């Protein structure tokens, strides 16, 4: 394998020389900036052997470096050994970013300008633009490093797409297109180019299975003033969907014709509306000029604000989803020491979910982590690395389902047997924060920056932080991580801007404690924003908690809670009991739910 | 008077015609963007008769409009009657801003380009730049609308300046200049141009009395790599100060020579460092080109972070300041019905402050407002409008002193006799927020956006908001409103950015309730940011409350407080009692302090 890697890099360098390329930049991303990318897009892995989910490769005529983050240092070190590729440990002191590294190479290059080549389809418009702006550099964005080199390359993802009925979506595609067109008119655009797969799936009320756990399909969509054109693989379409598209005013063209069509429309002088954060550099290169309107896709905000139908469906599906997690809890609490493993827990809850009527997929691969494993935020148990669940520790399970009636994301942490006072304290502080944020009442105009502290303050007071945001937006039978709403404490001007929280948005509330080598705690509920009331001061908003499953009372030390904390937990448990009791299937389940939603005094 | 106004405008229009000016833009600001401006700068009042503290005048050949905000609609209506000037009610639906109004005039003008004239010294760089960017407009920024017209114009402000000893400032001017020069070197600047008076006063450790309540002096400062030049009126300088400046490497030039010198330095090719938010358009016009480095004055952050000496001094002066307010409280609590007025209360506390050893001035004119008057945030009692203090209402007093050992700003609201349950509830909610923010522990990197909600949440839950920020930075024997730290809930990208809260910064914490026509409540303490601890998660910060005076227990309804709220108040009152008791002068004062800092159960 290492020899193969070396041979592939040698071949690449030969082609770089032929084309006067100095630096080749290689990612493992798909053409749509998807969060997960399929095997077909494993170009970085092909040239490095590195299988981590994050990392980029920079190859010059005489050096090669793989940039990845702390999660993967050990794995990358092993996988890169003897390949001639240096491991660049991102985030470590003195280690440049890929961009800084490339800029240094360009500054030190004899060639002028220094040519940076990449496949513009696998690089974001924003990053490609940064590379193009490097002093002394010129970019060649149509270079495919793989070429014909990859024997047995996995197939390009394609699945049969389907229409998500209006009883699930609550709004027709025609109506959604109309809303996009109103924004286009407001901005003065002729064509709106959508390339982000969840924006397309939402707009057309269509779903597919081309990206792991994201029910989307490979496509691009051009929305004109009267008609739209969907660029999609023909194998993805059956007759019903073709008819549906026709009726919706959407023409069908082959997926591969997208860039050509954009070039033609530019030649015709059409004004494009596109979202620089959500298109690749290939498209950006075609449309970038002073006429192009670069704004957030109108669909981003539309999609984030769930409509009445979606909310009713979500509310209902969360009851069933919560019942699954309650059964998982009952199962976990009933385990004898060493009886089961992390993967057993994941399988248990996965099987529960599959029984739900309109289950489609999981929102993401279930995270099941026991003991110290739960301290690793991105831990995934594997058959080779699968901890046994023992008494005296905590089991963290983060899971969710894609249902026709919506997407769920829930984390619960359970005490297995009796646990230490320190664990109880950490759990109770986490819970206080989770409840305080869920209980917020706030003026319209607050973004997640203004509210995040409510979730962190109890932990911060004890010198504890979790090194991530408090929560993310959640799609509807779509991506479980969805922009533009989120909860974050650190405001980085121009870098990570998040939207105001508006009624209809769904955001997770998931503070945690991660004690390296010891334990991990996360408690995650999804919050639906609602209008609370309106008066002379403005519109006040609040949250309704969608997620319904008991919080483990065995992990609570009530001495860390004040009267407000206790009232919040009791309120929540009262709702959980009321909503889930009818779904409990026998007396033992009902007793269990009763016990774990009992009122705290 | 109205005839005079008309004659002045006619004269102005004659000169506008002579010089081909289409629009004249007139402010009442001084040349340094000071918060308050002296009578000399009353150009807007001269041409309109309008005496409000905020407003601008736009005069064309055949129209005139005064733009002011809701506080002044009634007053402006009366003062503008029969002057031919239209009142433009800012913030009202359909009313353009001054800039929009001017842009509309330019768009509709036959002349091309349309000439907008103003005195660039009285307009901020940012706003002048906006005017210059109006389509079809050209600006003439050296037009003085007053000219020789103003018989008996008040004198240009000048006071004898003095050096603030290092025992107060904790750092020599030489050291401060060195720090500025290090920043200049980092940025690659030859000259740092300071025009904001507090930046100059801080840098040189000098103070004056040229702006009401701001102990600053009219000047500009150019800091070169080796020497600096202070542009100041010669009457402001005595021999001691001249010697001091000489020893500090600061040359003295006349105040009027500043712009000429800047022009010369530009001609020599010098690279300027200047702060676009803190210079006027006149200076900006001279220095603006691609070489000029436009960044925040390095002094802004330096000044905000108080040093050890300043902190020790401030801590001590707050004890004495708090004792004054405690005496005011005792006085107010002892009043019989109708015995005194708002102005009596202001006078009482002002006289108390004057007795403090190193008292220099008030931080701002004391606000004393009884009953419904306190609901007006900018209320000022006058001999004509001076409410009598009666039983059954609340008295709000917002006051502070400029001492050589620092600047204070404190608001207390007192029950006069027995007040309603509604008032107590509103007060208690305000107090909960004030205490929650003061008790915050947070990671370094938080700005006031991330923390503000802690002060508001208790009020927001009840549908109440105060329509202003929660707090502002406070200078040290300098401006009571000081950038760049503040607490605000609404994040406006690019508009109102505020700095991260850092150890040494002092920020007010002043939530309130303003019930129009009924009552006003504000509780204001100053918070000093300190390092709490540091661990693997980062540096944690917290606040120490500098302000020391009892919170009126008669206004607290304990049923709205949880155990944390009560503990916070008791902690605070314990500190107040400990620190102020030695300053109480007789048994009755000691008893009073004891009673009003008693532990809540």
Secondary-structure-derived class of chain A:
alpha+beta
How many DSSP E strands of chain A?
A: 30
Low-confidence stretches of chain A: none
End-to-end CA span of chain A: 62 Å
Whole-number mean pLDDT of chain A = 95
Report the C-alpha radius of gyration of chain A, rounded.
Answer: 25 Å
What global shape of chain A is seen?
A: globular
Summarize the SSE layout with pairings:
Two copies of one chain form a homodimer.
Chain A: H1 2-18, E1 23-26, H2 43-48, E2 56-60, E3 64-68, H3 73-80, E4 86-89, H4 98-107, E5 114-117, H5 125-132, E6 137-140, E7 162-163, H6 166-169, H7 173-187, E8 191-194, H8 197-204, E9 206-207, E10 219-223, E11 228-232, H9 239-247, E12 250-254, H10 258-267, E13 272-274, H11 281-287, E14 293-294, H12 298-304, H13 308-333, E15 340-341, H14 342-354, E16 359-362, E17 367-370, E18 388-389, E19 393-399, E20 401-403, E21 406-407, E22 410-416, H15 421-438, E23 441-443, H16 448-460, E24 471-473, E25 482-487, E26 506-509, E27 512-515, E28 519-522, E29 525-535, E30 538-545, H17 563-580, H18 587-596
Parallel strand pairs in A: 1-5, 3-4, 5-6, 8-13, 11-12, 13-14
Antiparallel strand pairs in A: 1-2, 2-3, 7-9, 8-10, 10-11, 15-18, 16-20, 17-19, 19-22, 20-21, 23-30, 24-25, 26-29, 27-28, 29-30
Helix pairs in contact in A: 5-11, 10-11, 13-14, 15-16
């Amino acid at each position: 394998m290492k020899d193969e890697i070396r041979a592939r890099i040698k071949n690449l360098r030969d082609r770089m020389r032929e084309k006067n390329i100095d630096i080749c930049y290689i990612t493992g991303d798909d053409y749509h900036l998807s969060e997960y990318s399929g095997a077909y897009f494993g170009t970085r892995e092909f040239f490095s052997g590195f299988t981590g989910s994050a990392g980029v490769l920079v190859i010059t005529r005489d050096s090669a470096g793989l940039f990845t983050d702390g999660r993967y240092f050990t794995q990358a070190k092993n996988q890169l050994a003897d390949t001639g590729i240096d491991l660049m440990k991102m985030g470590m002191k003195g280690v440049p970013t890929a961009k800084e590294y490339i800029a240094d190479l360009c500054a030190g290059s004899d060639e002028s300008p220094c040519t940076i080549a990449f496949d513009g389809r696998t690089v974001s418009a924003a990053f490609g633009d940064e590379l193009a702006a490097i002093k002394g550099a010129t970019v060649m964005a149509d270079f495919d490093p793989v070429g014909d080199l990859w024997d047995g390359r996995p197939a390009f993802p394609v699945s049969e797409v389907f229409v998500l009925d209006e009883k699930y979506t609550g709004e027709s595609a025609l109506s959604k297109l109309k809303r996009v067109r109103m924004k286009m008119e407001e901005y003065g655009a002729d064509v709106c180019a959508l390339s982000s797969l969840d924006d397309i799936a939402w707009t057309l009320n269509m779903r597919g299975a081309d990206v792991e756990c994201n029910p989307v399909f490979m496509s691009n969509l051009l929305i004109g003033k009267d008609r739209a054109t969907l660029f999609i693989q023909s194998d993805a379409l059956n007759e019903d969907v073709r008819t549906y598209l026709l009726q919706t005013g959407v023409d069908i063209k082959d997926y591969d014709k997208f860039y050509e069509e954009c070039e033609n429309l530019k030649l015709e002088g059409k004004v494009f509306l596109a979202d620089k954060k959500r298109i690749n550099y290939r498209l950006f290169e075609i449309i970038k000029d002073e006429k192009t309107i670069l704004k957030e896709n109108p669909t981003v905000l539309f999609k984030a604000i769930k409509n009445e139908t979606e909310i009713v469906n979500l509310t209902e599906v969360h009851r069933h989803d919560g019942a699954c997690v309650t059964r998982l809890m009952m199962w976990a609490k009933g385990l004898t020491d060493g009886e089961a493993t992390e993967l057993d827990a994941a399988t248990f809850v996965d099987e529960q979910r599959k029984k739900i009527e309109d289950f489609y997929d999981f929102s993401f691969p279930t995270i099941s982590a026991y003991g110290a494993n739960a301290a690793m935020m991105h831990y995934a148990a594997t058959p080779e690395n699968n901890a046994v669940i023992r008494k005296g520790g905590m089991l963290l399970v983060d899971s969710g389902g894609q249902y026709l009636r919506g997407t769920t994301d829930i984390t619960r942490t359970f005490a297995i047997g009796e646990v230490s006072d320190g664990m109880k304290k950490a759990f109770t502080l986490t819970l206080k924060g989770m409840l305080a944020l869920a209980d917020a009442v706030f003026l319209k105009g607050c973004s997640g920056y203004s509210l995040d502290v409510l979730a962190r303050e109890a932990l911060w007071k004890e010198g504890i932080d979790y090194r991530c945001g408090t929560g993310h937006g959640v799609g509807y039978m779509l991506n479980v991580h969805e922009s533009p709403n989120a909860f974050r404490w650190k405001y980085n001007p121009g870098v990570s801007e998040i939207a105001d929280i508006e009624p209809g948005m769904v955001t997770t509330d998931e503070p945690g404690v991660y004690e390296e080598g010891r334990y991990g705690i996360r408690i995650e509920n999804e919050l639906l924003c609602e209008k609370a009331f309106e008066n002379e001061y403005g519109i006040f908003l609040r949250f309704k908690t969608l997620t319904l499953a008991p919080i483990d009372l065995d992990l609570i030390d009530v001495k860390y809670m004040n009267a407000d904390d206790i009232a919040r937990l009791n309120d929540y448990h009262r709702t959980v009991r009321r909503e889930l009791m009818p779904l409990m299937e026998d007396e033992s389940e009902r007793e269990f739910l009763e016990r774990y939603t009992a009122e705290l005094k």
